[in-house]
Structures are given as structure tokens and as C-alpha cells.
UniProtKB/TrEMBL annotation:
Coiled coil: none annotated. This is Methyltransferase domain-containing protein. Pfam families: Methyltransf_31. Residues 38-148 form the Methyltransferase domain. InterPro entries: Methyltranfer_dom, SAM-dependent_MTases_sf.
Length: 278
């Protein structure tokens, strides 16, 4: 199924719906172990606060953030660019088109919460890691966290069911999923085959608390679904999208709400890896 290139992201929507994403990063950032002279390439950098945090630690190094969202790159350039922190609009399924990325000059290639989107297309999937390998110096490291096997399974199941109820075939509903959530076996084999030595590859079930609901509907479970599920919704005609969203939200809220205090926790599963270019 063809998906559009429409830019669904904006810094404001992201902050309201999932501002916790660039903040819940202490483990992957500890694995990144930024050194003052590091040259770090951040793949799928979003609107840039985490990239800027890395650049502050790489004070005499260089950090380049790449992202395919024009809106996010504009915000990042406005709010987080500095002498050693730059941003560039780049589809990271085509890193070979960005000579400064794949020049073998980077100490570290980093990515947080972006690869499950970038790896969506099976045809370009392995190439993303081949290009990350090319980007690195010999001995350099790829360090990342992404959604792993079973990530937000309740959301995935609810969207699939709602799309089928809206008239799609099972196959069409499956193809509407914008994510690829691999497990450690797939990841370890893929990275090893390319020429990495995999130092860590771990899967963690990490339920994650949603932002509170807010008046304009951009927070809470609904805000999360509207932003992160935008690509699922593109699979149905515009007039049906609000009804699909309402159905998904009703199902997901039934599953994720905690009785004791009404807080809502999505079933995040994180895949983290550290791999060294031999
Ligand atoms: C959940 S955000 C994570 C952003 C940031 N790394 C963070 O930690 O906040 C996912 C990001 O992946 C980016 N993305 C998705 N597909 C991409 C692609 N093909 N190339 C580059 N970036 C992509 C999106 O634009 C978005 O900024």
C-alpha cells in the first residue's frame, strides 16, 4: 500500500502527545557515553532537544542531526542549533544521498525512537544499517533505542481491527502499519552480517505513562494516537478517520487505564543495541 510523504510531525504536537520520548533516554544515553571530542550522527533526531543535549557533552566535537520532517528540522534549527550542533533535512532510508553522513568520519551513530519508523520499508531496511556502518570510523559505534518486538501491541491490534471494521482487508490493514518492531535475534544477525560486532542487544518491556488529557485533545491517549497513528489513518478515506480514531481510542483506553489512579500506561517495549564497526 502506498503511503504519503505528508509531514504529520510538529514540535508542539509532539510535546503535547509524547514529550516524554526524548526524556526517557537515560539508559541509551549512558550507552552512548559521549566524549568531549566525539563526532556523533543522530538519525531521526526529531525537533532536536536530545541532539542538543549530546552536543553539549561533545563540547569540542560535532553533532549532526538528520530527520525527514521539514517541520521538525525547522524547529531544531531555530531552537537547538549551535556551533557544534547542526541539523539537516534528510530521509534516512537514503543516507547514501548525504555524503557528509556516509564519509566514514563519525565516532558514533546514534538514534532514539526513530528506527522503527525508518525501517518500515523492507526494501530499504538493511541498507539503513549498511549506511550507518559506512558513516562510522573503524572502531566507531552504532548506539540506538527503538520500538522492539511487541511494542504498543494494544495500539497496533486496535488500529488493525478498526481498519478492518472500516472496510480494509486484513492484508491492507497490516500494510498500513507504519512501524517495524524487531526482536534482538533479527537485530543481532542483521548487524553481524553487515560487519558489526554486537556488544549489547536487549529488549525491555517498559510501560510508559501517557501525558494527561488536555482541553484541545492534543494530549492523553487520543493525542498520542492522533500523532503516532497518523499513517494508519491515511489508509481510510478522510470522512471515516475520526470514527476509526474514536474506536481505537475506546479500545486502547479500556486496556491501558490503571484502576488505582486512572493513569494510562502504554505497553512500550524498547530494543537497545550497541554495535562496534570492526
Ligand atoms: C518519535 S520521533 C523521535 C525523535 C527524536 N529522536 C527523539 O528522541 O525525540 C521519530 C522521528 O523519526 C523520524 N523519521 C521517520 N522516518 C524517517 C526517515 N525515513 N528518515 C528520517 N527520519 C525519519 C520522524 O520524522 C521523527 O522525527
Amino acid at each position: 500500500m502506498a503511503t504519503s510523504n505528508k509531514d504529520h510531525w510538529s514540535a508542539e504536537k509532539y510535546q503535547n502527545a509524547a514529550g516524554f520520548v526524548p526524556k526517557l533516554t537515560s539508559t541509551v544515553v549512558s550507552y552512548l557515553d559521549v566524549q568531549p571530542t566525539d563526532r556523533v550522527l543522530d538519525i531521526g533526531c526529531g525537533d532536536g532537544p536530545l541532539t542538543a543535549q549530546i552536543a553539549a557533552a561533545a563540547s569540542s566535537g560535532q553533532v549532526l542531526g538528520l530527520d525527514a520532517s521539514p517541520s521538525f528540522i525547522q524547529s531544531a534549527q531555530k531552537n537547538h542549533a549551535s556551533k557544534n550542533c547542526t541539523f539537516k533535512l534528510q530521509d534516512c532510508t537514503k543516507l547514501q544521498d548525504c555524503p557528509e553522513a556516509v564519509d566514514g568520519s563519525w565516532d558514533k551513530v546514534f538514534s532514539n525512537a526513530a528506527l522503527h519508523w525508518i525501517l518500515r520499508n523492507p526494501e530499504t531496511r538493511v541498507g539503513v544499517f549498511e549506511n550507518a556502518h559506512k558513516a562510522l570510523k573503524k572502531g566507531g559505534r552504532l548506539i540506538f533505542e527503538q520500538g522492539g518486538a511487541g511494542n504498543v501491541a494494544e495500539v497496533h491490534a486496535a488500529f488493525t481491527a478498526a481498519l478492518i471494521h472500516a472496510g480494509l482487508s486484513v492484508q491492507q490493514a497490516r500494510e498500513a502499519c507504519p512501524w517495524f518492531f524487531p526482536g534482538p535475534d533479527w537485530m543481532t544477525k542483521t548487524l553481524t552480517d553487515i560487519g558489526f560486532e554486537v556488544e549489547k542487544c536487549e529488549l525491555e518491556y517498559r510501560p510508559t505513562k501517557c501525558n494527561p488529557d488536555n482541553a484541545d485533545g492534543s494530549g492523553g491517549v487520543m493525542g498520542w494516537l492522533r500523532l503516532m497513528g497518523a499513517k494508519f489513518l491515511e489508509a481510510v478515506e478522510e470522512g471515516k478517520r475520526e470514527a476509526v480514531l474514536r474506536e481505537v481510542s475506546d479500545i486502547v483506553e479500556s486496556i491501558v487505564t490503571r484502576e488505582e489512579d486512572g493513569s494510562k500506561w502504554l505497553g512500550y517495549t524498547r530494543l537497545r543495541a550497541v554495535a562496534r564497526k570492526k
